[in-house]
Amino acid sequence: xxxxxxxxxxxxxxxxxxxxxxxxxxxxxxxxxxxxxxxxxxxxxxxxxxxxxxxxxxxxxxxxxxxxxxxxxxxxxxxxxxxxxxxxxxxxxxxxxxxxxxxxxxxxxxxxxxxxxxxxxxxxxxxxxxxxxxxxxxxxxxxxxxxxxxxxxxxxxxxxxxxxxxxxxxxxxxxxxxxxxxxxxxxxxxxxxxxxxxxxxxxxxxxxxxxxxxxxxxxxxxxxxxxxxxxxxxxxxxxxx
Length: 241
Description:
Blueprint: E1 3-5, E2 13-17, H1 18-27, E3 35-40, E4 43-52, E5 56-64, E6 74-80, H2 86-97, E7 101-106, H3 117-137, E8 145-146, E9 150-151, H4 152-160, E10 165-169, E11 187-192, H5 200-208, E12 212-214, H6 223-237
Parallel strand pairs: 1-3, 6-7, 6-11, 7-8, 7-9, 10-11, 10-12
Antiparallel strand pairs: 2-5, 3-4, 4-5
Helix pairs in contact: 2-3, 2-6
């Protein structure tokens, strides 16, 4: 069944609005009486389309779903921004795996520099749209947020305040395999470097912030691959995949 996020449920009814309404009516061409999934406040419901109005589709709630689709851990991905459209792929795949939050970061070797607010706003709109589409496709109960772009220094300050587990895959680490890291908390922060990797002084700052520097194996992974692998390992080790 098709899946739609709604912003409220009143008296057992909900409305599909805006772009979702157009997609439902004009693209999917769902008929009145069609059953759909409705998601509200991280909870999934089975609903039915009652009628189409001028700009909304009125739906009724049939019952609440018993399925649990969200992971039992809260994984945030701090991703140094790569070139071209790679960030969209990173967002899409990590949302599918189960990441709850993505934070774009500018580090020393990050090639992409976002200096104008208008450019950042445009990218954020696009990135969050990619997250929404991936959440619907993978049957998530939340739409993971892509935060505003932050600097490496701001990320370090953020991580210092975190009480969770911080994991940093690093190509020059050879002994501490991520598979051996014990994940015994519900808050995990994964930090992925840019195409050229982190500078040594950045790794030292991450260590001082409490990060575990790990290897993902003997092969060097691209920045768009490393986060996917690290997040998948987290989900596997916590029985969420």
